[in-house]
Design goal:
Chain lengths: ~150, ~110
Amino acid sequence: MALSRRHVFALAAGAAIVPVFQFLPGRAVAAPEDVGKLIAEFAGGKEPQSGKITLTAPEIAENGNTVPISIEVESAMEGDDMVDQVLILADGNPSADVATFAFTAMSGKAAATTRMRLARTQNVIAVAKMADGSVYMDKKEVKVTIGGCGG
Amino acid sequence: MSAAPKPRVKVPKKARAGEIVVLKTLISHEMESGQRKDKDGNVIPRKIINKFTCEFNGQPVFSCDIDPAISANPYFEFSAKVNESGTFKLTWVDDDGSVYTDEQKIEVD
């Protein structure tokens, strides 16, 4: 194939972009089966239900280096009605694990806020494990303009 | 790390018995993810805060296992139910084994 002038320019542009992307670890992506496995391990075989847990995250994050996320689980935090742990996962990061929160009766309320890194547009997943063994899940897609984790 | 990690914690000074108060915590820390490479292509070793705990009068209130996806200068906001006056003890554990702590008193009536 004879290369036209236009092709040469296109190739040059492509070659210039490739090395830049090699520095973005966002290319390494947690496989969906990893996320499924992590949820199953955390849930101890229970099928996560919807409801009870609310994950709040921005629809669009301009800067993936610091994305505020909040979780809140409906619970009296007394006796049997208690939230033990909440697992946070991100399915498009190099590693899906984000954090695991642990609550007690002294928490008063099963709610927490933190800031996380998102390598690219992806789903953030929150899974709550109650003291009675039931498991609840919520999921939000966050669109990321500039990925976090990178150099 | 340019400077020693410095915790900053916001806790109300006073509360009524049985009230649920909100604690806000932040610690200066670069949270090096272990995913980045330096300009020679060598992986920069991971160095993060991997655990955060909060106790009130020696009883666990809230804790968090942390992975590299938590942002630099990790921030945590959470609640605590206070029935008596006492002290919150906050602890951050670094990958290198360092432990950073902070204490905050609250008066409950």
